[in-house]
Amino acid sequence: MTPLANPALSDAELAREVAIQAARLLRDLCAGGTCDGKELGDRGDSEANALILALLHEARPDDFVLSEEAADDPARCGARRVWIVDPLDGTREFCDRREDWAVHIGLAIDGTAETGAVALPASGQVFASDDAAVPPPPLPERPRIVVSRSRTPPLALAVAEALGGELVPMGSAGAKAMAVVDGQAEIYLHAGGQYEWDNCAPVAVARAAGLHCSRIDGASLVYNRADPLLPDLLICRQEYAAAVLAAVSQVEQ
């Protein structure tokens, strides 16, 4: 049976609903115990992707979709509206049945990450760009910087040293970005390779929450390019943006 998505939903409501349905599918697959390891990851990627594409095409038939798990349609580059999705961000963490994996449903309009939802299925959380604004917690004595638990970029180590920061290892890009949105960290700095689907939805959510979002040189993040490589990213509390960008500039000189 073809899944249904209500076309009357706003873009943000649709992003949230699609993220919730994909999260439910992945959580059930993970809990089912019928497969493990690579088979579990492959099924998660494939089945979540199929569901997301069906839901988006049902609700927004005129929009394009760029997904990590689907063939790219170059015609999207001429479109104003493109959904940019990662059906399973953090496949390794998913296969290990950890909590730090995510579902990304983002919408870029005219190259800007306008709307999005990020689900953290293992913990039952969904963050969306239409969430009510929440005052950020007080700044800690030392900024917490979320980094990859398997391959911390040397740049992040250097910036942490410059700022007197504390490194917090974590899995998927979505989980790291939402840690900043949720006040569990202050800075997410990434260098070394990402694609648009890794950060479009997280950036939309983070920007709506009032956080600074940019490339690590301070340039704007631009989406729906012919080459979806988007290799670096900074999401942080506004209070730290200038200091982080200055530290990056010093390191890269």
From TrEMBL:
SUPFAM superfamilies: Carbohydrate phosphatase. The keyword Metal-binding applies. Its cofactor is Mg(2+). GO terms for molecular function: 3'(2'),5'-bisphosphate nucleotidase activity; metal ion binding. Pfam families: Inositol_P (PF00459). Mg(2+) binds at E68, D86, L88, D89, D198. CDD domains: CysQ. It comes from the Bacteria. GO terms for biological process: 3'-phosphoadenosine 5'-phosphosulfate metabolic process; sulfate assimilation. The keyword Nucleus does not apply. Keywords: Magnesium, Metal-binding. This is 3'(2'),5'-bisphosphate nucleotidase CysQ.
